[in-house]
Amino acid sequence: MPNWLERLIQPLSLPVIVLALTFLGAPYFTSLPASVSDIFATGPYWAALIALILAIAFNRSRVALYTLALVGGFFIFRYFGTEAPLWQFVVYGLTPVNLAIISCYSERGLFTLHGYLRLVILGSQAGILAWFATHDVRLIDAWLQFNLNDLVASGLQLADKTHIVTLPAGGGPVTTIATWSAGLSAMLAPITQLEFVLLGLAGLIIIITSWQFYTPVAFALLGAAAGYYLLILSRPETLIVDAYMLASLALICIGLLRDSHNMAYRDELTTLPQRRAFNEQLLAVGQRYSLAMLDIDHFKKFNDTHGHDVGDQVLQMVASQINKVRGGGRAFRYGGEEFAVIFNGKDKADAAYSLEQVRKSIAAYAMVIREHERVEEADDELAKGGRQRGSYHKANKKVHVTISVGVAERDLRGQTPEEVLKLADEALYKAKKNGRNQIVIS
Predict the structure, then answer these.
(1) What confidence category does residue 163 fall into, taking pLDDT thresholds of 50, 70 and 90?
(2) What pLDDT, on the 0 to 100 scale, is given for residue 3?
(3) What's the rounded Cα separation, in Å, for the pair 261 and 92?
């Protein structure tokens, strides 16, 4: 599978599967026993409580605020409906906008000044809505309805708000699609132009920010937003609404746990699994495997010459090339400029062949470095260039790095992973001693 396609599919797989199963199972919810129906009725609130507890435990303001905004929109839609223009605006306009804004937040922690301010902003919205709910809202209703309904109705109104849709008997995907179509018709019929624009812009922003952050939490929030959009296309009084909210909050909880797992097991700079993941993987290897230790040649000297920023770029480049290793190898950042690769079920000859391709690709990779070089040309040349002696200009410089590799195989009964790793380290030392930029097999 191409790299870009894997990068596209992998983070979306879980949200798509969860929401698709909820969508396909929707027709059967009405036939569930009362005891199960009660679980669906209270499930979203328990799921929201779990999500909030996890957000507090991990100090994640985005997850906490997103959960509160999501549950607020769900509660109003489920129990107040969208008959009143105010509640309609909250469901179709304000909630999606809140979700979009929160998805743009960079994580600043929940128990910080930024976290408190964001919580106050969200809480003030709830206070304003509570005030409107207890006072005469005819003026605001009139303002919310002033959105050129007659113009947009011709393009958006698929059915009259009171239109009765006869659903096919027997359940199944046909009933699901019919139910979804009925919800779409009911939503688009009364929707205002402002709400339609807010729905579209909010959805687009959430999609863009999920790819910008590219973390499990970001895609979990995207899946939760998709669940909310499916939710408001349903009828408020049905269990389907509860099911979509339950699925959305479950995605948030899973995304938060996966993100925390990545922080503990994945290196932030190179995105490779780090040493803790490597040690755990060693416990799961079979009876036959090979280990490789890789080290960037003269990295300290390179780092001192070109700076730590360029050094970080080198680490990222080398990591990306090692991560492309074939032959079933799994790459890890072992520490500093050292990397490790595990070949489960492979002998050392096969592992060395796959790693040789990586070594060649890194040696051939030309990195372009922009540096400030001092101008020391003759006076007439300086005049032509409009520069003075001793000034600085940017220059592009191509540099190459190489790696040394040591490979070892478990070939003795009772040999531990630590012993095989020691052999790979010794082979790496020989590769360094023999002139670097080569592979040595133990």
Answers:
(1) very low
(2) 57
(3) 34
Residues 192 and 145: beta-carbon distance below 8 Å: yes
Handedness of CA 202, 204, 207, 210 (dihedral sign): negative
Q: How far, in whole angstroms, is CA 178 from its chain's centroid?
A: 32
Decide: helix, strand or coil at residue 34: helix
Classified as helix, coil or strand, 402 is coil
Instruction: For the chain, give the number of residues.
Output: 442
Cα 158 to Cα 8: distance, rounded to the nearest angstrom:
33
CATH 3.30.70.270 residue ranges in the chain? 275-365+400-441
Of 264, 284, 221, 187, the C-alpha closest to 62 is 221
The band of 122, judged by pLDDT with boundaries at 50, 70 and 90, is very high
With bands split at pLDDT 50, 70 and 90, how would you rate the model's confidence at 100?
A: very high
Q: Return the bridge partners of 344, or none.
A: 289
> 386: pLDDT confidence band, cut at 50, 70 and 90?
low
**Closest CA relative to residue 58, chosen from 267, 255, 288:** 255
Q: What is the pTM of this model?
A: 0.70
CA dist 388 and 312 (Å) reads 33
Catalytic residues, which ones? 337
Assigned token pair, 347: 């002998």
Q: Are 225 and 103 in contact (CB under 8 A)?
A: yes
pLDDT of 165 reads: 37
Task: Give me the residues paired with residue 374 across strands.
Answer: 392
Phi-psi region of 240 (alpha: psi -120 to 50; beta: other; left: phi over 0): alpha
In the structure encoding, which two tokens stand for residue 217, read together? 């939490």
CA geometry: angle 417, 423, 428, nearest 5 deg = 125
**C-alpha distance from residue 412 to each of 286, 288, 348, 409, 430 (Å):** 13, 10, 13, 9, 22
Cα–Cα distance for residue pair 32/362, rounded to 1 Å: 59
The structure tokens listed for 185 are: 């018709």
- Go through 116-132 and write b for each residue having 16 or more CB atoms within 10 A of its CB, e for each that does not: eebeeebeebeeebeeb
Q: Where are the beta strands (DSSP E) in 168-248?
A: none
Q: What is the pLDDT of residues 197-226, one digit of tens each?
A: 999 999 999 999 999 988 899 999 999 999
3-state secondary structure of 113: helix
What CATH superfamily is the domain 275-365+400-441? Reverse transcriptase/Diguanylate cyclase domain (3.30.70.270)
Q: Are 114 and 102 in contact (CB under 8 A)?
A: no
Per-residue pLDDT reduced to its tens digit, 237-252? 778 899 999 999 999 9
CA distance 427 to 375: 46
